[in-house]
Amino acid sequence: MVNPVLPQVLSEIRQHPEGVSEYYLMQQLEHQHLFEDLHAEGSLALYRKHFIIMNALYDLQNVLWDEEQRVLSISPMHIELHEPGTDWEGYNPNPDLSTYYLDWHNFETTTAEDVETLMQSVSGTRH
Hints:
Blueprint: H1 6-15, H2 22-31, H3 42-68, E1 72-73, E2 80-81, H4 95-101, H5 104-109, H6 112-123
Antiparallel strand pairs: 1-2
Organism: Marinobacterium stanieri
Protein name: DNA-J related protein
Pfam families: DNAJ_related
């Protein structure tokens, strides 16, 4: 599946060489009405938005390295496209996250219950 927001994510990253947050990207994509077909509400809708953004970022991370030798560093708080030639010896992108977010099966099979279980495990609360 081709990520429908990939061009917009790349455009935003290129427009902000200082970097952006995942929240900023989500706001921009929502403003462009790019999440209207999610068919989800609440936590599941948030998970799907997050997944779509992260999928685009990890896809772009590979493409930008292969085509431009540029590193796209990814964390929810700071996403930044670095200039070519920057010394990235020892740079180690998270292969587990990349594998997870590049697999659309995870997007398709994650349920609202799965998201709630994850949220509870992260917050340490039980309902």
